[in-house]
Amino acid sequence: MEKFVKILKKLFPFTIILILVYFVPPIFILVQQEEEVIERMLTADLMILNPGISFIAAMAFGVRNGFHWYFVLLVVILFFLCLLFIYGFSFFGFLLIYGVAAILGLYLGKSLKEGRDEMYL
């Protein structure tokens, strides 16, 4: 139980960031009146903003904590919830893209952490 609480404390700030990135922009985008504008903005959100932020957050987590699979699981679960509530299952393939972005970010962050740790030895 104590280990689980420790993991949750590590994940908490990243969870807040990912929730804000996954859920807030689509809500503001859907307020738009023109369907063409909504389609372009949602596409940019799904293809550029969300995977980019997932990669950057994963890299930051990797630099601080190393490579842990539970961060990838967090990214996939949060985006799955976003699919349920906002986009629908037609965008289910993006789960793979976000998971890969998180894995690459974690790997790069872990590599940067190891390089930084070796530099200070």
TrEMBL record:
What keywords are annotated for this sequence in UniProt? Membrane, Transmembrane, Transmembrane helix
| Residue spans crossing the bilayer | 12-31, 43-62, 69-86, 92-109
Name of the molecule in the record? Uncharacterized protein
